[in-house]
Design brief:
By secondary structure, the chain is α+β, with helices and mostly antiparallel strands. The chain contains three helices and six strands; from the N terminus they run βααββαβββ. The chain has a six-stranded mixed β-sheet with strand order 4-5-3-2-1-6, with helices on one face. The chain is globular and about 40 Å long. About 30% of the residues are buried.
Length: about 150
């Protein structure tokens, strides 16, 4: 598992994508690309939730790349105690937002949320990965704090 701590700032979205992409580079594009897109969506949602809650705590992004066990797991924390709303059946084309949960439904094999003991929640997604044994994830430090995202 690797972890990235980001400030709740819009620049953190691109920082999270740039962090996740090399961790996934050994995976096939049909796994890698959806995970990177969902990283963007969940970090964007976490920033919005933190702003609404008036929180300034870092957003934690955790990524487990485990091809031998056939999965990639992503979790992103936010300061909101509110549960995830149900996915909308339709989002009008003129709306700026509201598509994140639809993307999560389509791209992830499973997803949900878990309350955190210290408050807030972790939103998670699981992606199936059927990789050959020769494909190995990139080794990275366990925890990274990103100060340049602010």
């Amino acid at each position: 598992m690797t972890c990235l701590l980001l400030p709740p700032h819009p620049a953190s979205v691109s920082t999270a994508r740039r962090w996740a992409a090399p961790l996934l580079e050994s995976l096939p594009a049909d796994v890698r690309d959806p995970v990177v897109l969902v990283v963007s969506e969940l970090v964007t949602n976490a920033i919005t939730a933190d702003e609404a809650a008036g929180a300034a705590d870092d957003i934690e992004v955790e990524l487990v790349v485990d091809p031998p066990h056939g999965h990639v797991v992503l979790a992103v924390t936010d300061a909101s105690d509110r549960p995830l709303p149900p996915s909308p059946a339709h989002v009008p084309g003129e709306e700026d937002g509201g598509r994140g949960l639809l993307l999560l439904d389509v791209l992830a094999d499973a997803h949900g949320w878990t309350p955190r003991p210290c408050g807030g929640k972790a939103v998670w997604a699981v992606f199936r990965c059927t990789c050959t044994p020769a494909q190995r994830p990139v080794t990275t430090p366990d925890r990274v704090r990103c100060a340049d995202a602010a």
